[in-house]
Amino acid sequence: MSKKEAYIEKLESQLKEWSARIDEFEAKADKAEADTKIKYQEEIEKLKQKREEADRKINELKEASEDAWEELKEGAENVLNEFRSTFDNIVSKFK
Predict the structure, then answer these.
(1) Per the confidence metrics, is the pTM higher than 0.90?
(2) What is the pLDDT along the chain (95 residues), one digit of tens a residue?
(3) What is the Cα–Cα distance from 47 to 24, expressed in whole angstroms?
(4) Are 40 and 32 in contact (CB under 8 A)?
(5) Distance between CA 89 and CA 81 in Å, rounded?
(6) Which of 7, 3, 21, 8 is nearest to 91 (CA)?
(7) Integer Cα distance of 60 and 79 in angstroms
(8) Up-side HSE of residue 64: CA atoms within 13 Å toward CB?
């Protein structure tokens, strides 16, 4: 397995874990009262948008040549860090 493949696998694993956490968050939102449920849904939409952005970056890495992927790596890391930060902020709001 190349360095690129290993890195992409790591990112996909993180994204899969966060997707599962979003699903848990949605299940919690479904049990919330109406006002809180609306707030949850708004925040969940933000998370889904970030997840889509992260998924696009991972796909860019997959399509990049062995030489070019290193240049895209930083952008992917930034998107994933932003996703993680957004997720943590949203979860802390609803604890």
Answers:
(1) no
(2) 788 889 899 999 999 998 998 898 888 888 888 888 888 888 889 889 989 998 998 999 899 888 788 888 888 888 888 888 988 888 787 76
(3) 12
(4) yes
(5) 12
(6) 21
(7) 12
(8) 21
